[in-house]
Amino acid sequence: MSKWADLPHFILYEIICRLSFFDDVFIVGAVCKSWQSVVNSLEKPLLPPKCPWLMLAERERGNKERQIRSFFKLSDTKTYNFKLPELVGRKSYGASLGWLLTIGTDLQINLFHPLSKQLVALPPQPTFCCQYNGKVECMYLCKNFVSKCVLSRSPWNSITHEYDRDCIIMTIYGDKKLLAFTRPGYKAWIDIKSPTRCYDDIVMVKYLFVALMMTKS
């Protein structure tokens, strides 16, 4: 075969399924656009990375440099750069399955996958039920309003190439650390009514959301 890019996708898919770590899957996707499309068709990484990848802070120089986001790979202590204009000027939170929750000074909230470049628009910040008292600067809301986000599953269906409306996006938000959720296609965030407030963390355990809070002993 003269060109690796012409390798049939079903064969490449079978090869990817036999790789040991997502790090190797990522390298496969970097070979060419054809191979990247196969990697993007995967609903989620088949296996976790050998070590977590850390997304570094946004650069504060020129606009072109701000489009470059750096990821530090712990297993080989190397930094990898990606051109991600979708993240310029936006606060990013790690969610689940490689997705980021982002919010800008326009208060629009998105889910974004930095490898596949898939973007899912979510309801904006003003649609949360409980807001701060008084006038609050948009920059402050962008940086502080959401404190945690967890997904129940990938919001993108790689088979239908449509948003997965069964995906639940759960957040801790506001100064009272309340719980709210939404789904792709919803127009607003929905509060979870509970006498408990000031949640510290959310985790996904066996298809259930578990909200954690610290109590004084």
TrEMBL record:
Residues annotated as domain F-box: 4-44
Pfam families: Beta-prop_KIB1-4, F-box
Stored InterPro entries: F-box-like_dom_sf (IPR036047), F-box_BR-signaling (IPR050942), F-box_dom (IPR001810), KIB1-4_b-propeller (IPR005174)
SUPFAM superfamilies for the chain: F-box domain
Protein name as it appears in the record: F-box domain-containing protein
Stretches assigned to the KIB1-4 beta-propeller domain: 71-211
Domain of life: Eukaryota
Gene3D superfamilies per the UniProt record, alphabetical: 1.20.1280.50
Species, as recorded: Quercus rubra (Northern red oak)
